[in-house]
Amino acid sequence: MGTSPDPHPAPQRVAVGHLRPDQVRLLHSVLRAGDVPAVVSGEELVVADGHRQEVDDAIRWVLAADGPPPDEGEDDDPTLRKGLGPLVPPSRPPLRDGRRQATRYRRLAAGTVDGALFAVPTLLAVKAGASPWVALALHAAVYALPTVTYGWTLGKLWTGLRLVGADTMRAPSLLHALLRWVVSAAPLAAAIALGAPGDVAALALVAVDLPILWDLRGLHDRAAGTVVVERSVGGPGIWVRRHRSATMAA
Prior knowledge:
It contains nine helices and five strands, in the order βαββααααβααααβ. It has helices at 21-33, 52-65, 104-127, 133-150, 154-158, 174-194, 198-209, 212-215, 219-224, and strands at 12-15, 38-41, 44-47, 161-165, 226-230. It has a three-stranded antiparallel β-sheet with strand order 1-3-2, covered by helices on one side. A two-stranded antiparallel sheet has the order 4-5. Strand 2 (38-41) and strand 3 (44-47) form a beta hairpin. The chain is elongated and about 65 Å long. The protein starts with 11 loop residues before the first strand and ends in a 20-residue tail after the last strand.
C-alpha cells in the first residue's frame, strides 16, 4: 500500500542572508505582487511548498535588477530596469521603495469614510441655513488639513494608506498637497459660485476621482504628482488578506 501525500507539507526555508535589506524588501514585494505566499524570518525566507522555483527565480531577478535608481523621467517600476521583463505579471508592480499603489477598492473604502466625514456635517450645516461656502471650508478640514500636516486623511489612515510624491516616495510638500486639494475642490467651488444644485456638485467631485478606476490615480493626483500607496512594504497593515504563510514563521 502506497503512502498518501502529506496534506500539509512543511514550508521550505530559503537563505536570504546574502541580500541587502533593501533587496530583501524588494524580493518580498515582488513575491507579494505575484501572490507567492512567503514571509521573512531572520535571514531566511519561509515559503509555502511548491513555490521554491518561483523564489529562486525571484532572487536571481532581484540580484540582476540591482542598480542605481532610475533617471528622472523613467518609470519607477523596478521590473523595467536594465531591460528586464517582469518576473510576475502584477497589476500593481512595486515602486522604487517596494511599496505598491493602493487598490481601487481600498481607495474606495478610504473615500467612503472621508466622504461621510464631509457630507454629514455639510448637510447639517446647509439645513441649518449656513452659507454654501461652509461646504468648501469643511472640505478643506477633511481633506486638505490632514493631508498637508500628516500625508493622509482619516479615511486613508483607517485603511492603511499614505499619500506620497510620485518622484520622492515621501510625504508631499506643502505646495503639492495644496495643489492636489485645489484640483479636487475646484468642482465644488465652481458649483457653489454658479449656484448649481448639490447633486451636480457631487457628480463633479466624483469625476475628479473617476480615473482611479483604471489608472489608480485621480485627476488631482496627476496634477500634483502624487500617488496613494500602501502604508509599508508589508502591506496596508489593516484588512490585509492572510495567506497560509502567515503562520509559517511560528
